[in-house]
Write a structure and sequence with these properties.
Layout: H1 6-28, H2 37-49, H3 68-102
Length: 103
């Protein structure tokens, strides 16, 4: 019986551990302000080079969407396509495993 529900048990343990880790880190970081990796990386580049980060121009100019709604839409589209791809890969693997066990 325990072998039948092993994946569900491992998933529950992983979720509980993740939630516990998140609560622990958020409780110990009083007064900390979240800064994304872009801010940290830009700050390190500016610190190491001694130059203003804004003065650098990329080789390939980036397109900036005209509004925040379009940017959010593109991000959601990217997340959905990534989810479809990951689901397709796992579905393919599951189908291969079931095909081998049926033989």
């Amino acid at each position: 019986m325990a072998r039948k529900y092993m994946l569900e048990i491992l998933t529950a343990v992983a979720i509980i551990a993740f939630c516990g880790l998140f609560l622990y880190t958020s409780a110990t970081m009083k007064g900390a302000e979240f800064a994304g990796s872009d801010n940290v990386g830009s700050g390190l580049i500016a610190e190491l080079s001694g130059k203003d980060v804004e003065s650098f121009t990329p080789l390939i100019p980036q397109w900036e969407p005209p509004s925040g709604e379009i940017e959010s839409c593109l991000f959601a589209l990217q997340a959905a396509l990534g989810g479809i791809f990951v689901g397709g890969v796992f579905g393919y693997w599951l189908g291969q495993a079931r095909g081998k066990s049926a033989e």
